[in-house]
## 1
Amino acid sequence: MTSIVITEAQREANRRYLVQQHRRHFINKLILTVITGLIVLVFVFPIFYWARLSITPYKYVFTIPPRFDFPETTRVWWSVVIGGRSYSDAMMEEVGNLTGVGGAGTGGYDIRPRIFNSVRVAGISTLIVIIVATFTAYALSRFEMRFKQNIVFFILSTRFMPGVAVVLPLYLMYREIGLYDTLGGLILAHVVINLPIATLLLKSFFDDIPRDLDDAAMVDGCTRFGAFWRIIVRYVAPGLAAAAVLCFIFSWNEFLFSLYLTRTPELQTVPVTIRTYDASAGTTEWGMMSAAGTAAIVPVFIFVLFVQRYLIRGLTLGAVRG
Amino acid sequence: MADTVLPRGKVTPIVDTRPRRKFWSGENPLFWLIPAVLFLLLYSIFPLLFNIYRSFFEFSSSRKVWVDLGVRNWVELFTDDPRFLNALGVTLTYVAVALAIQLLLGMLIALLLDAKPWGSGLMQTLIILPMVVAPAVAGLMGRLMMHSEFGVISVYSYQLGLLEKSEPLLGGTGRFALIAVLLVDIWQWTPFFVLIILAGLKGMPHEVLEAAEVDGANWFQRLTRVKIPLLFGVITVAILFRLVDLFKIFDYIAIMTAGGPAGRTESVSYYSFVNTFSQVKWGYGATIGVVIMVMGWVAAWIYQKVFRLKW
């Protein structure tokens, strides 16, 4: 048997080959990263540009060509941090008499109470949605029923309902029963908007938990409700959190119903308020709009980081496991 | 232990085997379903019935009464309303273009991210962000960036000669207004396809892909013969959801163009809204409402049946 002899030259060739492969791999990866990174940047850029506008003194907003830096932002910030003035005051000084309206203190334009409105509407409606949806999802996951597919489709179809077709009947009904122009009415509307999403999403989480667990609990003496409450709900906790965050975001961003089911400015939610900066006083107040808009999207960004894993599952109502 | 004596005669069982019939113990499915069904009836059946009923009436805002019109609303809608036909055309164009571009672009970005560039995790997080921006705010972002004078996109398009200053994206005669709205929709919802296709790619069985590679399939063959057929399921779901949402497009149009100029961006939803709230033609708005509800419903039903979606 002849042993294979590897010469020094061959060894050298092998090494060079590997290095070359490695280098090619490196270059490919670099090109891939650059291309993908650029595409992702295009998607992030509008958010950056919008957020930048909210901390840019007014005189730099409409420059041509557009600027991408943060001119005098530090000066504005210093006057807030050191000078102890409110952010909106500092910004208003820059706005000067160019627009004359806007800013905190002009009543109808103050965003802060509206943020509180949005938090209340989104928070309470989410709480109700989660309670009702958990029950429904459990039933759809555990019971064999006739027409189950039809019930599921019925729930799904309410997710597909065009808002414009629903808002008029709701509006007229609300006027009859006195829910029009109340936060309670709006909360109720947001509950029904989010209910299908939460229900079907939670159903997919319940489906992941073996039925044996229910049976075991019931053999040990729980009623079905007891098994649900003491055992099963604890296992879908991540699902509950994901559904809650998603419902909160949807309610927070909702525009059409919030616009038409409330009339009093004091009851408006954030997206509707942002709309009122737009041409309501003759000028479109980009600075105010972007500040309010940024305030509206930043909490959502923070929230969504926690449920990133479940985002696709939520948006497809559990049909696609992310 | 061996001489356990079994008692004779009637023995009460230790385990309670009586059927639990109590409603509150939760054996009855209705116990679980009633709250949600009540809520959803309010939201889907009631508006549908209401719209059907009121489509035979018209509200007279001067006399504050509903006037019985018979089928006149329906006749007008189908035979004598060019604005509705225009809105239908705009909506269908919008849906088709947006869906095609979002699907292809989403597929491309997903494949790029799946090839694991450096920082792909961070990139994935970043690309989620457009999706959770409030649609109203996204519309305003679009308007800012496509502003005919100082918008970033406009200014550079003028410089590159892509656009004429007399014919901006937003405003002017509105030739490009629909494109402007589409750009915002594409920006906000392409990430949806990216994430969903990425989820599909990650759940793909390794063995199949490796087998294809061993059998000598090149990159393109692996994509078209293996990956795309395996992705069929998730893509179906993604298209279903985008389809129904695109069909009821409202927010961007309300914020960006208000249906104008000259109805070039007026979708069916927006037209129904104009009738209902701007012109206070509640009966006619309800008629259009019935049409779009039924259309959306039927489309979703057929789609679900054809592609056998299961929840």
## 2
Amino acid sequence: MNLFRKHPSLPVFLGLLAAFVLAVTLMSEAAGAGLVSTSFVKTLGKTLCLCLIALAMDLVWGYTGILSLGHFAFFGLGGYMIGMWLMYARTETIVEASLASGALPPTPQEVQDAIATQIFGVVGASDLPAIWSLAGSLPAQLALVVLVPAALAAVFGWLAFRARVTGVYLSILTQAMTLALALWLFQNDSGLRGNNGLSGLQNIPGLEQHGQDLVSLWFFWASALALGLGYLGAQWLVSGKFGSVIRAIRDDEARVRFLGYPVEGFKLFVFVLTAVVAGLAGALYYPQAGIVNPAELAPIASIYLAVWVAIGGRGRLYGAVIGAAFVSLVSTWFTGGNAPDIPLGGYTLHWVDWWQVLLGLSFVAVTLYAPRGIGGLFDLLAGLRAPNRRGAPLGPDQGALQEKEADA
Amino acid sequence: MSTLLEVSGVSVTFDGFRAINNLSFSIAEGELRAVIGPNGAGKTTFMDIVTGKTRPDSGRVLFGEKSVDLLRLSEARIARAGVGRKFQRPTVFEDQTVAENLMLALRAHRAPWRVLFWRPKPADHARIAELAAEVGLSDQLPRKAGELSHGQKQWLEIGMLLAQEPRLLLVDEPAAGMTGPEREHTTDLLVSLARSRAVVVVEHDMEFVRRLACKVTVLHEGSVLAEGSLDHVTANPAVIDVYLGRG
């Protein structure tokens, strides 16, 4: 309760989120007036998942100063882990139904072989790879949604932080990590269907009797709940002494070491925690998207994530959420062909092609002219201004808050 | 008094330049010591070695009654063992309030998991208020450290060191860039600090060292040139030669 009083933005955020969920529910096809199409409910649900990973990105970059350009790898892995169960379990029901017509009941081995042929026929294989051995069990795959991103983040973070890699070099390493993972997933023999990825994820086994309109609304609720809980947890995390320590690491990590704090331990803790949050967000996102493939883990995706947080305003939780929601929804609008083309005499400006340019320009503009991003608008309303430090950042480290990002 | 810190035979070379050359000396429990020397004598490098920032090529640095070898520990472990350091430029966390800065330094568990669930108790708030009063920042607690004047930042940093409760405090040029009254306040703070713990002050300014009235170690080219009272060392021809002969 103390948390709510100390941070007025917290009840406001949770209240707005609840109101938004209620409004969408009342306008949905499944439970309300049908003003909002099922596919748009899915888009909104996916956007909430993107807000959740943006929150994770803000913790790791905005608060701890680690510019990770690899968090979408964890998001994708979360999607793959839940996708394995979704695909396996659904194929199982189909296979069992078709084999049931035979004279003899099928043996478990026959069922498994048939599932493997179904799933891996597309990459010319018919054996179930070892990494799919737990795919039949939902609890096991749910555990992997958490464990796989955590393990990758722990190994990568331990190696990188222990060697005291910081700044640009760390960002490059995280890019290399996500690129390597994507390239590995692209291979047909890595056992995750190569560039086809996992598909048909919108059909949830056991929920076939319910229509997509209802299922998508459930996922929308689940995504909103996850975002609400994630926001609450993040606010709690950054409000206490832990938050004070990670902000200190962002601005001047050498000084934190001389206070006796194990800086590498803190960085690893935040890196792994945010990787887990990213994994969970991915596990909620991909059943709504219906397909996960290695292109999702491309390095550019993680860079977009940093752009969202920068546009929203890093170092403040609601900034990250606003940035992710705003940019991804606007992006959907432009790339969906909804924006009217602009005829310019001999050349017609198609937004589908020019949206990226617009996004790039607005990123540059925000960095140069409004470093506090969209979230900074609230500071204007509240009358808060940046301190006058004659251009000096708030600490010697590369990730340190810049003058214009800080509150006086 | 028993020895708290013993530096023996330490040498360190940077790109062929011998910054510290077979340096040996020791600090007793609760002692106030000034280390002086011309530029490049190795004063700051000595501090870097003791606090774990720089690893020497040879030698040993033993600390405390159990004679822990500091050279085997990380910076954070050395700090937890009881060595505090004040940098030349005031280094406080400028985006955080004076109270938050002191709270960070307050003696408590340092592991991430313990920090996560740590919440200040009334006794901790009282201790922060007490520390702020001691360094003269009582009315500045809710202000951001970045807004403080240069002298106030120095005192905040000293307050943070007090909160850390180190057994040995290394202070690098505390009087640099301070005005007259600020210097006096700083001298008083250092002398009162030394009542309960060992303090090593690295300083350029002879007048400041005289006011501290303590044993002085003169460093030159990375090793000890002379040791004793300020009058004793300033009468030493070798010291005069180093200070006056080379300007």
